[in-house]
Model the fold of this input.
Amino acid sequence: MKKGYLQRDPIADADSIRHVSEKGARRKRRLEPEVLDARGKVQRPGEEQRLIDGASPMMQRLIVAALETAMRKGELLKLRWVNVDFARKRIVVRAETSKTRTGREIPITGRLQAVLEMARTALDAELTQAEGDQVSTEDRQRANARACVFGDLTGKPIANTKRAFETAVLQAAGHEPKWTAVGGLSKESREALRHVNLHFHDLRHEAASRFVEAGMPIHHVQAALGHASLQQTTTYVNVMWDGLQGSFRQFDESRPRCNSVVSEGQIDHSLVYNEQRSADSKVSVN
Done:
C-alpha cells in the first residue's frame, strides 16, 4: 500500500468479510409454520399468515414481495413501476438501488404478480381520481411508471416502514402494540417485540431457505440474492428440520434396497499385517 500497488488493505477486508459472514451465520430465525391437528386441520395459522393479517395493505404487499423475491427492504422501497416488466414477468433491480451496486433481474411468481396487479390498479384509480381529466393518458402513464411500487397511495416513496412492520410483528404474536406520546413503543411492547425477535431482513433469509427447500439450484438462489459468492449465500439458508427429514426420506426411498455389508457368522476383529495371511482366503493383505 505504501508503494501504491494496493489501494485497500486485504487483511482488513478479510476481517470485515469474516465478521459479516459470522454475523449472518448466527441468524437462524425462520417463520413459524402452521400447526395442524391429528386430522390435518389448521389449529394455528403460520407466522406468515399472521403477519399479513396484522399488517396494513402497504406492508402486506411488502411482506409478500420480500418472501417471493428475497429482495432487500431498500431495494423494494426504491422499486418503481418502470422496472416491473409484466410482459416478461421480471423485476429489474437497478445497480444504483442495490446495496452491492450491481443490477440483477428477478422473475415474478404467480403470487407476486397478483399482488402487483392489485397495487397497480389501486394506484391508477387513485391518480385518476386526484388528477381528473386535466392530465392526458400519456402523461398519466409516464407519471405512473415513475411511481414507487411500494409507496403511498399516490406512488410517492415511503421513508420509513419500521412502525408498520413492528405493528404487524406484535399483532402476529397476539400482542396489541402500545405507543408512547413521543411515538415510540411502550416498555411492555418493546419487551414483547424483543421476545418475538423477528426483523424484516429475516424475510430475505426465509425466502432464500424456501428457494433451496423447493429444489432451486444454489447458484440460482445466489443470482436472486445478488451475492458475489456462494459462501455468502449459504449463510442465508436455514433448512428447517421437516424439510431436511423429508429430503432424507426421499433419498432413502429413491435408491434400491441395500445389501447387507456383513455376512452372518463370527466376525474376526484381529488385525492383519503384511506378513500375516488370512486362514480362510489365503490372500495377503497389504
